[in-house]
Amino acid sequence: PESALEEQFHATIARKDRIEPRDWMPEAYRRTLVRQVAQHAHSEIIGMQPEGAWIGRAPSLRRKAILLAKVQDEAGHGLYLYSAAETLGVSRAELTELLVTGRQKYSSIFNYPTLSYADVGTIGWLVDGAAICNQVPLCRTSYGPYGRAMIRICKEESFHQRQGYELLRTMMRGTDAQRAMVQESVDRFWWPSLMMFGPPDDASPHTARSMAWGVKTHTNDELRQRFVDMTVPQAEALGVTLPDPDLAWNEQRGSYDFGQPDWDELWAVVAGDGPCNAQRLAHRTRAWREGAWVREAALAYAERERAEHEE
Ligand code: FAQ
């Protein structure tokens, strides 16, 4: 009976054990995971665009090799995550259709433009830094395939973060113009990076249920705080200023106090109204449509092979 299965599901969650693809799960749990894992996968794939735009303009062969490797890793992350989503009974093609028709989301951060090479460093340092804060706890999420995908992704994200920091450190040791370029870039990316963690807890419709199911293990605000605490000393070591006048060490809490991002801006970007939403989606849609013949040819070939073997 379904109630026994449901009991088993809740017991597994309570033990902090994993739910696996063949286990019974409530339909709402499955839907939550499809939503989050698909959004996460789409973010990795759309996230290739802002940095990918600089591959042809990298300042040296070494920087170009590093950037190429990073952007390729992001394609890989997208593929592991689509595979994790497929274990929930949806296909990658279906999910991509939902993305390109605007019915599924991807992270707000990738709707901001990359205006200088310093942005490659800032994205590595702040955006990958935020991604790590959010994703390390997700290695212990309750759904097995998602948690296991996260382990490898986090290892690669740490490399991404280090390369960003190293790029910025090199620029900060350079000329005044290079230092100004880094500061200008950090000024643009700081607040959008804080928004990556989602709305404040009291405005987050999904957090409570996702925490009860062990899909999320920390709230949006908890992870945002962890990110700020980790990043402030790094900013000091770099010699850049974070553009928040309210940023101050709070002795009592043992954490930094900080200002609030502009939440109206987050909602506008999430609703499709950010600086680059139209461009990002148009680019993804074009690539998806132009690749249709490859998918069709591969399918036709596989079917012909199968038919020949059956004869
Ligand atoms: N952007 O109730 P909540 C990367 C939506 S890192 C867009 O708080 P939840 C690596 C949310 O989906 C980026 N939408 O939702 C990389 C929901 O909408 P819905 C990807 C946002 O799920 C680095 C609604 O608002 N990482 O790609 C955002 O409990 C460099 C209500 O929000 C992940 O996806 C936002 N910032 O918490 C790649 C991490 N915030 O579905 C390339 C996994 C909220 O009801 C270069 N995901 N929304 O229509 C998560 O941890 C969670 O899903 C949150 C949101 C924390 C993002």
UniProtKB/TrEMBL annotation:
Which Gene3D superfamilies does the record associate with it?
A: 1.20.1260.10
A biological process (GO) of this protein is:
phenylacetate catabolic process
Which molecular-function annotations from GO does this UniProt entry contain?
Answer: phenylacetyl-CoA 1,2-epoxidase activity
Pfam families, A to Z: PaaA_PaaC
* GO terms for cellular component: cytosol
Q: Which SUPFAM superfamilies does the record match to this protein? A: Ferritin-like
Entries under PANTHER family matching the protein: 1,2-PHENYLACETYL-COA EPOXIDASE, SUBUNIT A, PHENYLACETIC ACID DEGRADATION PROTEIN PAA
Quote the protein name from its UniProt record.
Phenylacetate-CoA oxygenase subunit PaaA
The gene is: paaA
